[in-house]
Write a structure and sequence with these properties.
flat; Immunoglobulin-like; four-stranded antiparallel β-sheet; five-stranded antiparallel β-sheet; 11 strands; alpha+beta
Length: 360
């Protein structure tokens, strides 16, 4: 009998299933990572320093809940990412096991009823013709596979390598978000022959570390404006045109008093609808400064009328006052508000505050 090939699609189904699960897991990992970054931004904005203390006290522990959400989204992103890559590898490896597999089945097996329905006839023919030998092909299946299956140890080894790589990448990313002002305890930042862990003045600027808010030299705050955008239905100029935009930034004491403002007349952006990376201010605070205030306002300059404040704060208020405790490490913050549509002067604004070293 001529054997008939029969295809086997089970391996293909397993391959597709693993790949789909892997891709879905990786997608979920990215979504959780985006949620984690969004929660982290809110935490840095509302749950640090004196403002964070007030929020924690009067909001019945919402900052603590935010920390828990950050932990679960961060851990979930890592776990889903690892599982996604493992399933993806399993799906890709299983494709080689399913390739080239052929099952050969004799044709007479496809008609079992005909053989069973005439048992007597078959026996009689055998008795009448004893010299005739009936050859039965006992071969039920033949497998052809040109490739050996992948070892489970190889899959495990690849999974471990990917897991270690992801953990290292996450650790490096997390360190980049942490405080980069920490000094190596065994290093000597100012090269004075005294290691940092026992040096009372790490940067040798004449201020003891206990009275110096920035131990890596001359410290300052950088205020960088990264995005500005108007509302299409806004009414900014008296003639119906686009606003002439400038940032009005002031520095004051802990009570936001005694404000001193940066000059702005040379930094007016005429007829602006969208701006990117459009202005940066740097202020050099005294080494023994403790709490300070940074005020941010955005104006539309009008030559024949009073300048109008462009509103980027949702709800009440149209400008921002940042109370910063430099001595406790505050001063790194990203502010992003899209207030377009609230009123005729509403805008979208994004800027950041950052502790930096000012080269003397």
């Amino acid at each position: 009998m001529r054997p008939a090939p029969v295809s086997n699609g089970g391996g293909s189904f397993a391959k597709i299933s693993n790949i789909v699960i892997g891709l879905v897991s990786i997608g979920v990992s990215f979504l959780l990572l985006i949620a984690f970054l969004d929660l982290q931004s809110d935490y840095e904005q509302y749950c640090t320093g004196f403002v964070g203390f007030l929020v924690e006290v009067f909001s019945e522990g919402q900052c603590s809940e935010l920390e828990n959400y950050m932990f679960f989204t961060g851990a979930g992103s890592l776990v889903c990412g690892l599982l996604g890559f493992v399933f993806l590898i399993l799906g890709l490896v299983s494709s080689s096991n399913a390739r080239g597999q052929v099952v050969m089945v004799p044709q007479y097996i496809q008609q079992p009823q005909q053989f069973v329905q005439q048992p007597q006839q078959f026996v009689q023919q055998s008795q009448q013709h004893p010299q005739r030998h009936v050859k039965i092909d006992k071969t039920q299946s033949v497998y052809s596979n040109s490739e050996k299956p992948k070892s489970g140890l190889a899959i495990l080894f690849l999974s471990i390598i990917i897991a270690i790589t992801l953990i290292i990448a996450l650790s490096v990313w997390n360190n980049s978000l942490s405080n980069d002002e920490d000094l190596d305890p065994e290093g000597d930042f100012d090269n004075d022959g005294i290691i940092n862990s026992i040096d009372s003045d790490d940067d040798n600027d004449g201020f003891e570390d206990t009275n110096d808010w920035y131990d890596k030299g001359n410290g300052g705050i950088e205020i960088s404006f990264s995005k500005f955008q108007v509302w299409d239905n806004g009414n900014y100029d008296s003639g119906g045109g686009l606003p002439d935009v400038y940032a009005y930034v002031g520095i004051g004491d802990s009570n936001c008093g005694n404000m001193q403002y940066f000059p702005y007349l040379d930094d007016i952006n005429q007829d602006s609808s969208t701006l990117y990376d459009w202005k940066t201010f740097v202020y050099d605070f005294e080494e023994d400064a403790t709490s300070v205030c940074i005020e941010v306002t955005v104006y539309d300059e009008d030559s024949w009328a009073p300048d109008e404040i462009l509103d980027f704060i949702p709800g009440t208020g149209s400008y921002y006052q940042h109370s910063i405790d430099l001595s406790s490490g505050e001063g790194n913050q990203i502010i992003s508000h899209d207030n377009r549509g609230e009123n005729a002067l509403s805008i979208e604004l994004e800027y950041s505050l950052k502790r930096i070293t000012i080269n003397s």
